Amino acid sequence: MSVAVDLHKLPAKCRQRFPIFDRRVYINSCSQGALSDRVRAAYADYLRDWDDRGAPWEYWIERTEAARTAFARLVNANPDEIAVTTSLSAGVAALASGLRYAGPRHKVVLTDWEFPTIGQIWHAQEARGARVVHVREDADGQIQPRAFRPLIDEETKLVSVTHVCYRNGARLDVDSVVRLAHEHEVPVLLDAYQAIGSIPIDVKALGVDFLACGTLKYLLGSAGLGFFYCRRELWEQAWPTATGWFADENVFAMDIHDYSPARNARRFQSGTPPIPAIYAGIAGIELMEEIGIAETQKHVRKLNELLIEGVEELGGTIATPRDPNRRGALICIESTDAERLVGELDREGIVTSSRDGNLRVSAHAYNTPEDVKAVLWELARKRHLLA
Ligand SMILES: Cc1ncc(COP(=O)(O)O)c(C=O)c1O
Prior knowledge:
Elements (H helix, E strand, L loop, with lengths): L1 H13 L10 E2 L10 H17 L3 H19 L6 E4 L2 H11 L8 E5 L4 H9 L6 E5 L20 E7 L11 H10 L4 E4 L11 H4 L3 E5 L11 E5 L44 H17 L1 H21 L16 E5 L3 H10 L2 E2 L1 E3 L2 E5 L6 H13 L6
Parallel strand pairs: 1-10, 3-4, 3-5, 5-6, 6-7
Antiparallel strand pairs: 2-8, 7-8, 9-12, 11-12
Bound molecules: pyridoxal-5'-phosphate (PLP).
Pyridoxal-5'-phosphate binds next to helix 4.
């Protein structure tokens, strides 16, 4: 049973660090990563430093730089290409505010897979002259790169896409979309929130121009910390008007008579950095580096094969693509009443979530085949809620 042995290797390395597994089957990392002892200790360190040292802002700024560097290392960027933000939305809104939509290039192309925040931020730019168009899902709920072709042209300002869809777990062929956009000299923004920490991401290899995400899902951090990558060559093409003093070229000049954004990606920041979440975020990123993101991807793929097979044996329907290269860590299962199903699983000690009529099951490095079996066992008892 080499597969079974293999599937215990990663949890054996890390599961004991996540106390929730003493009480519950936690298989919901698409919403929030489980709390580790390491992240809990990081929060304790923050409180200790605050209590012992009062207002150690020099150290806290140094921690902010450590977070910037840790994230840059994770995605193969330079630290000066990274803004430390308070959410994915904050970085994207800074970019959107920094672009001008008056010239011939005024069209923003997004997809029907976007998280609401992306649609809302770009549609808000319609008040500033942007025209926003959506690449539609096909009949199977898929988005093929060729569907972008008619929409990307000399009027296009930006292509804004999501790596893995939060509703159905489908993964976009980012390479092909980037190639197509770049043929027309159009930059690409990638929302990598549902991918980061579960799939190795190299911004240079992917060729994306901007990338936004946060730490609370597969990066095992908590709410309050996001990152925004901007390729060095594009720094000065955005002049954010949603801004703040930590975006200024000289943060501590305290100049109220001027706005000179930093000449690097820090121009996409705004106010005081989220110090508690930075302690947690660094701990989460370092933990994921120790566990291994490539190993996690392989592990989760195998768990997901077991899950998909099991659901199909029960007569259920998987909304996520079958091709492992076209999906992320998240598996979506169609349900007649997804919220009720989540509630019933919760009563049995199994934590999942729902979106768009689907049950969302999202395994991580800490999940075992037994967790998947526990989900399948309960789904068998609640077969009437499978669509
Ligand atoms: C794909 C995706 N993008 C964005 C977000 C939200 O980002 P934030 O709240 O940090 O702005 C989420 C959160 O669930 C998400 O899944």
